[in-house]
Design brief:
Layout (H helix, E strand, L loop, with lengths): L4 E3 L6 E6 L2 E6 L10 H16 L5 E6 L10 H7 L9 H21 L4 E5 L3 E2 L1 H8 L2 E5 L3 E3 L13 H9 L1 H9 L4 E2 H7 L4 E3 L4 H13 L3 H14 L4 H15 L3 H12 L9
Helix pairs in contact: 1-3, 2-11, 3-4, 3-10, 4-5, 5-6
């Protein structure tokens, strides 16, 4: 058996290894529950673009370091900057950058002509949940949870979550999960069809590896066309959804409600939304 080869992603926020056709991408900010950073997003986009064309890669596993999968956007960082944008970008520049990154990450996971698997050792929230739902399959530790989380920080949602969630659970349930933002346990996620498998936390790595090895050993050409067939069978266009989400998400970052929610998050209190 060959030894896994490590890939330099250009940032410690994303780890990458290739082992017998399985590319494992690990979101690596455990001290922040693997919340997204600009470096992480850019590296993830670059690694997925390379993996799509790399014939050595036959399956992709997306997971998180430590006890979490991904907490989504870095709310503490947003609170410090005062809005949902980064740096001195205009709102149109911010929207364009987010559109491009969403297509290059969630969009590419969804459209990738290779099987993708999300392995959730712990919470998947906000955009982190969107990335998990963009994958073809999901395996969760029994202690992991899912939550849309956007309503709690005054955001409308991004990275394709509204599209993927609606396709997986239907419009009515998706609206409930977005508007009320409940915590969905692993067992409930399994019943809803948001997860494919649930296992004990100490069994997650081996279970994910087992599934990934099976996929990596499968018929890659058939998988390519199988995914295209399945994606075309879904109503609507994912790029339209991603673009609209990016526009609304960045605009929401300019609202008083978002700024209040960011402050409340840091201060560990409930936000008081004013609708502006």
């Amino acid at each position: 058996m060959s030894q896994p080869s490590s890939i330099d992603t250009g940032t410690p926020h994303l780890l990458a290894t290739l082992d017998e056709g399985v590319l494992t991408l690990t979101l690596n900010r455990p001290e922040a529950r693997n919340a997204m950073s600009l470096a992480m997003n850019q590296a993830l986009e670059a690694q997925l673009a390379a993996a799509e064309l790399d014939t050595r890669v036959r399956c992709i596993v997306l997971t998180g370091a430590g006890k979490g999968f991904c907490a989504g956007g870095d709310v503490k960082g947003m609170a410090a900057s005062g809005d949902g944008t980064v740096g001195a970008l205009t709102i149109d520049q911010a929207i364009h950058r987010q559109r491009a990154n969403q297509r290059g990450t969630a969009g590419r996971l969804f459209k990738m002509p290779k099987p993708t698997l999300a392995a959730l050792p712990g919470p998947a929230a906000g955009a982190g949940l969107s990335l998990a739902l963009a994958c073809d399959l999901r395996v969760m530790a029994s202690t992991a949870i899912m939550t849309t989380a956007f309503a709690r920080v005054g955001f409308s949602g991004d990275y394709g979550g509204t599209y993927f969630m609606t396709q997986l659970v239907g419009a009515a349930k998706a609206r409930e999960l977005y508007l009320l933002s409940p915590r969905v346990s692993a067992e409930e996620a399994l019943k809803l069809g948001l997860a494919n498998w649930v296992c004990a936390p100490d069994e997650l790595a081996e279970r994910a590896a087992q599934i990934a090895r099976t996929l990596a050993a499968g018929p890659t050409v058939a998988y390519r066309y199988m995914k295209e067939n399945l994606n075309r069978a879904m109503a609507g266009d994912v790029d339209d959804c991603l673009d609209l989400e990016a526009t609304h998400h960045v605009h929401c970052g300019q609202t008083e409600d978002h700024r209040e929610a960011s402050r409340a998050f840091v201060e560990k209190r409930e936000p008081v939304f004013q609708g502006r």
